DNA sequence: GAGTGCGCATGAT
DNA sequence: ATCATGCGCACTC
């Protein structure tokens, strides 16, 4: 078990790693202090690259634990949403033959926000819906990805 | 453990 | 505004 604290555009994040250095959890922290042990450098570098628009897909070992089979199905599908693209809770619900509300509940339990891009799942009325790192963060991430894509394809 | 009630990151009316 | 919805959790037995 190791952890790192990083300052990002969406706030200070705490990142947990297991003994094999896979990421197990990402969450907001009120400990507003940077703290990056050597073993975390590689991942933090990817994270920073993502935030400056130089990385669109994470390539780093993760360890998704403490989730149900249902949660895993939702997260697997979420992982396949392409960069800067969005789908609705309802869209995922239809794929899994469940209800959009249940999908929201599963995403709420996403242990790895940003890496598992649940910010790309929005409500069918076009508003963002909730986010464990805060709604402003969700809006920021969506806007960020769209503008990065735009710049790349000018 | 099985059963039930309830709170949601929703959606359709 | 109101209802249907599925899942997980917190209760009860």
From TrEMBL:
Pfam families: DNA_binding_1 (PF01035). It catalyses: a 6-O-methyl-2'-deoxyguanosine in DNA + L-cysteinyl-[protein] = S-methyl-L-cysteinyl-[protein] + a 2'-deoxyguanosine in DNA; a 4-O-methyl-thymidine in DNA + L-cysteinyl-[protein] = a thymidine in DNA + S-methyl-L-cysteinyl-[protein]. It is an enzyme of class 2 (transferase). PROSITE patterns: MGMT (PS00374). Gene3D superfamilies: Winged helix-like DNA-binding domain superfamily/Winged helix DNA-binding domain. Keywords: DNA damage, DNA repair, Methyltransferase, Transferase. One of its GO terms (biological process) is methylation. One of its GO terms (molecular function) is methylated-DNA-[protein]-cysteine S-methyltransferase activity. Its EC number is 2.1.1.63. This is methylated-DNA--[protein]-cysteine S-methyltransferase. It comes from Thermodesulfovibrio aggregans.
């Amino acid at each position: 078990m190791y952890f790192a604290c990083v300052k990002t555009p969406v706030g200070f994040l705490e990142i947990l790693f297991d003994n094999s250095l896979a990421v197990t959890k990402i969450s907001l922290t009120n400990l507003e202090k940077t703290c990056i042990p050597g073993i975390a450098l590689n991942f933090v570098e990817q994270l920073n690259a993502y935030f400056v628009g130089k990385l669109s897909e994470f390539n780093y070992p993760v360890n998704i634990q403490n989730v149900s089979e249902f949660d895993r199905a939702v997260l697997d599908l979420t992982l396949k949403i392409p960069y800067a693209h969005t789908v609705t809770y309802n869209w995922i619900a239809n794929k899994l033959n469940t209800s959009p509300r249940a999908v929201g509940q599963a995403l709420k339990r996403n242990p790895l926000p940003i890496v598992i891009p649940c910010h790309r799942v929005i409500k069918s009325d076009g508003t963002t819906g909730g986010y464990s790192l805060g709604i402003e963060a969700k809006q920021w991430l969506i806007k960020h990805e769209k503008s990065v894509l735009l710049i790349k394809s000018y």
